[in-house]
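Onboarding guide, step 5: your first structure request.
Type a short instruction followed by the sequence, for example:

Predict the 3D structure of this protein.
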Amino acid sequence: MTAKPKPLFLGIDTGGTYTDAVLWSEEGGPKGKVLAKAKALTTRHDLAVGISGAVDAVLEKAGTDPAAIKLVSMSTTLATNALVEGQGGRVALVMIGFSEADLARDGLKTALGTDPVVFCPGGHDVHGNAAKLDLSGLEAALPELGGSVSGFAVCAYFATRNPAHELAARDMIREKTGLPVTASHELSAKLGGPRRALTTLLNARLISMIDRLVAATEGFLAKRGIAAPLMVVRGDGALVSAAFARQRPIETILSGPAASLVGARHMTGLDDAMVSDIGGTTTDVAVLDGGRPRLDPEGATVGGFRTMVEAVAMRTFGLGGDSEVALEDGALNPKILLGPRRLVPLALAGMVHGEAVTSELERQLRAPNPGRMDGRFAVRTGVPDRLAAGLTAPEAKLYEAIGSTPLALDRLLTSNAQNATLNRLVSRGLVHVSGFTPSDAAHVLGKQANWDPAAARLGAELFARRRDGRGQAIAATPEALAERVLVTLTRWSAEYILETAFAEDGLDGAATVAHALVQRAVDAHPGIARFTVALDRPVIGLGASAPLHYAGLPPLIGNGCVVPEDTDVANALGAVVGQVRVSAEARVSQPQEGLFRLSSGQMVRDFTDEAKAIAAAEADVRAIAAQRARDAGTDSAEIDVVTEFKVSTVESQRMFIEAHVVAVASGRPRIAV
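The system replies with structure tokens like these:
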């Protein structure tokens, strides 16, 4: 009898630069097997284009029938990027029981901007007792708002203890406008009204955006004959169904980094590790504890806003393969500096533009003395002209002078003021600066060869001619300079990993001292007081350039460094091997002696017996978690329930204050049959 073939799983990650795809099978042992992987440039104007490019390449490499794919899972930076860039639909915020002064807390007024807000009397107290609700002001505003916003966000005072007023407002809005409504109690059970309102507002803004992404992806899959469930990675690394993510898109912030942590754990089998993911622009560092990403207890911060969304505790540093290489000013023995700005590597510019780049580099090398702007070019990014609206006269003049072919800065700029103008054009995303980067250094040493090594070597020669405080060239050869740059990148990587470890140990407030001690340890600084530091767990290195840059990490961090075979597609792999994980919460309080009030889901009930109230709470959260798990995409959830009591002792008598009951349901996602 022929064995039934194992189902195939497709993982997709839409990153800032590349969209990755991986085809994975459960065959080949507990880690499964990567059958094919591919990358395509992310197309921000239409993410489905980049997705189709990566997925079609994977299907072609594997030579497989698309119909054999039984599950598709994706991680995305769409929500994160939208919040960072201030994008999203115009929504109306409905505040029940709050005053206008509450808008000043937790950045809510800044986040609201010019979007409308409606205040209504109502809300509840900490025990769920209701104030008088009056929705007449909201009802009067709905005809106008219904035609000018894309959705509504509703937040009521102490809605986590009694959501009745949010439900009343939600039902009225849906009936009269037909628009999507996000209620705050659906997103978080935590106290803190203004921050819960902020989280709800951001969620409402993202709904249409995530909806378009999911619809485009589902449409692409249907065209390819892939009739499989579509899952999305949340910011805590768990998987949820696309329908679930459409309603709660805010939970997909930090989806990509979370997926990389899940992929790191899967590829290495390590339950406890530091994970360092190096890309072209940034390095992301996080911690694995007991096989799960460590979460930020205060909620994820994105775009300057602290939300109530559970997401990975990730520290991001401006260090990557395309980081700007600069020289310390005014030092006798100047240090090499890296980042935080990203440049287009000279090797990449040389590959794309050829003679236009290399001839200028050769011209600069023929000059008798090094120039301050040697090896630097400006080129337009190619965004539509309408995005250049509102430029000042100096900005417009400089932008006009820059074209689609790189222009050497020593020909373009005539003053320091123009350099500042150029930087403003770069910050608006209108212009790229090209220059020497660690990626170029890797090309010089033959450790990377996908772009133009000749342009990289010319750039290294120009940089090596720069002078130290004694007037001597900073490096004897291009190779010596390139080696110094790569050593610096590895050393800085070690510093950032150790700084993250200090912060996770609660020493973030002593960052200046910690940084100085880390530098002494990494440099093996000789002195009367010698300092060494070592991690209690290994580092997992992720990213296409991790094998190169992390080879020298172990002696600097006092522990090993594991770079998995498929490290370049860790995000996409993490997207497809993760688990569905959802939770439900309930609270039992005692508003008066002998009365135990249970608040769970959308219900509030009173009991005269503590044990019966706790039993009902545990039964409720178990049922709610089971239903949420089914909605999130699993039919095989295991449910764990934990109850925490808050009590006091008065004259040797136990006094019940509150109980917090949490159910967590987890399981593998359902697949197509």
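Each response can be followed by summary notes, for example: Residues 193-223 form the longest helix (31 residues).
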